Structure formats: C-alpha cells, structure tokens
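ok here's IclR family transcriptional regulator, seq below lol
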Amino acid sequence: MTDKELKPRGRRPKTEEIDESGLPPEDRYRAPALDKGLDILELLASQAHGLTRAEIVKEMDRSASEIYRMLERLVARQYVMRNPSGDRYALSLKLFALANMHPPLSRLINQALPVMDEFTRKAEQSCHMGVYDRGNVLISAQISSPSGWSFSVQRGARVGLLDTASGHLLLAYANPDSYQRMLAEHTPLDGEVPISHEKLAATLQSIRDQGYLERDSAQTFGVTDVSFPILGPDNTALATLTCPYIRRIDRHVGPDIAQVRQFLREAAKTLSFSQSAVHGKG
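and the structure came out like this:
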C-alpha cells in the first residue's frame, strides 16, 4: 500500500478552534483578510499621490506576496487604481460614489431615530439631534416624549452656535481647523446670549473633561439641557444629542435627571464611532 493510499479521505481535519470569548469585543470574530484590505484602504486614503507596492509593504509591515494579492483584488473591484505606468496605487472614487448613494446626514438621521425613540420612551423626555450648519446649529431630528409632557425644539430650527448646549458640544469636539472655520462663519441669531472668549474656552474644556454638558438652558426658564456628542472615527463630533429636561412636580414619578443623563449617554455611545469620550462622569 502506498503512502497516498494511507492518507485519510474526506474533508481535511479542522484545526483547533480558538476560544475568543475572553477577548475584548474589538478582537472577537476576526477576519484577517478583511482587516488587511481595510488597512490598505485607510493607508491610501491618507496619501494624496498614492504609494508604490514597496511603500505599502513597508508601511504595513507585511509580506510582499500577501499585499500583492490583496491589492490585485482591490484593483479588480475598482476600490484602488493603478497609475498609467503601473507602479503606484491610489484610491479610486468608488468609495466616494458609494457614500453619496446615501447622503451622510440622511443616513445619520435614519440610524439615530430608532435610538432617539428608545431614549424618549425610557426617559419620558424629548430629545433632538443637532448638526453644524453654516455658522450655527440645525436641529436635524426631534422626537417628543410619549408621555405628553415635555419641552421640545422643532425639527428644522436653527439655534445658536455660541449659546446652546448643542453648539458648545460641536465646538468642543471640533478639530482646530474646523473650530476656527465654525467661529468665522458664525452669525448671531435673534436673542443670542453673548459669551466671552474666556468663558467659552472654559466651557469647552469642561465639556471635554467630563464628556458631556449639563446646565440650565440659556433660552428657556425651568429647562435643564443635557447634551452628549455623537463622535466620528477621528473623535470629532458628527452631531449632538440633547435632552431639554423638565422636572414633573405632580404625583407622577418618572426618571430623574441622573437616570435621564445615563439613558442619553447610552444613546450617544450607540451612535458614535469613537466611544472614548462618550462616557462622562456622574
């Protein structure tokens, strides 16, 4: 009997499975090939003029053969393109085209609405989402409390950048260039409460230190604004979630402001790419 005949037939035996239950969430369900492809896309996204294959291999510290195979697949799927001479690789416009098939704000609103709805049901308070828009803040989504007792800001309203919780959150979690641009584009709205540069700087630092803002409304008596950022991958604010909290004084016992704060923190964390600053204190 030959060695070939001695080999067992059928499927190859499975390799020993690795127990991933004890790993942190980001290390579970690993897909090395997918990670490798995403690493290449993220690397090329930071290179305006592309990179050679040798430069990609060096930056990623992987073997030339595995990088070559992955690059060929990305080229075949049109996520990456070669220059005419064939020695450099750069991102194509396919990712841009895919992103614009679903406008970013519409996509964010669609993802946020179910989370906001769950918040309002648990907190018995209203909730709105604010995004930066031409020097001030646009209320892009709003859900009222199902209890019937709440204070709300109308969807589509424009509110001040420098005197609202939403505006201060967006400024606190903006990168330096965006921060300067936002201030330069700002135009005061009717009734805007002025703020000094020193007080603004102190407010923004306090927000960054605790991860959220909670204070009496500068617009409406009896309302406490509680606001958290929705963070993008670079830890800047894509939007804000704000609850204009009002306290019931009748016999109904609903969630107190500490519970409401925790519910809102969880909602913002669910919608954030980067969760490092959406924890806060208290």
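fwiw The chain has a mean pLDDT of 86. kinda neat tbh
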